[in-house]
Amino acid sequence: MPLTNQLRDDMLASVPSLRAFAISLSGNGDRADDLVQETLLRAIANIDSFQPGSNLPAWLFTILRNLFRSDYRKRRREVEDSEGNYAKTLKTQPSQSAHLEFEEFRAALDKLPQDQREALILVGASGFSYEDAAAICGCAVGTIKSRVNRARSKLSALLYVDGAEDFGPDNTVRAVIGGNG
Amino acid sequence: MKEVKPQASQPGAPRKQGGLNAEIQARIGHQLRAMYDDVVRQGVPDRFADLIRKLDEPGGQGGGDTEKNSGRD
Lengths: 181, 73
What we know:
The complex is a heterodimer.
Chain A: H1 5-26, H2 29-45, H3 56-75, H4 79-91, H5 97-111, H6 114-124, H7 130-137, H8 141-166, H9 169-180
Helix pairs in contact in A: 1-2, 1-3, 2-3, 3-7, 4-5, 6-7, 6-8, 7-8
Chain B: H1 17-40, H2 46-54
């Protein structure tokens, strides 16, 4: 299919969600934008293989995901670094609780295995159907479903089940008092 | 007196995993979308608008829709 104006417009319209996907995957804004740019260039270079009338966003997401994956293999994520930041945010308990909550969420998301993270984002945030998400990830629908479920339960374990009682100011106070007696 | 044994029949605190789960799942969904939509709302940065616009120039594709003004400068 030739690159029509319509297709160009549709691509542009997909940019905001492509960026959101890229940032969710990589946790890094600059790198995310590079990924989006490369995705668009790849898409244009391979526009012949796009089936007219098929799902353009899903096609673009597939390209971005594959780019991210091959990039990932080369660079590896800076997991240690993000864990370092995570520890820091836990020590700074004060006021900005909304920001803190966001940081915690981000850190927990980063701890998910990549398969689970991308499945959760595609279904839970991008709003793709399980079928589309399966096509984007090149796996069975059932696989996507179980990845999403595992992602959700792992996140809730990281954020709420262990977390709720184990840290937070109350517990610190209790520990101090307990240490006295 | 100190020891409070967990009793299923206690009315005040329904600490069942399942019940908690639904609420937690909703919260996770909400946070996930909030994070995502925050980026979506930023729209299309110029960088990408420019990129797509530049593709107007024929050359990449072996020219399917070269209109009238090819290579005029």
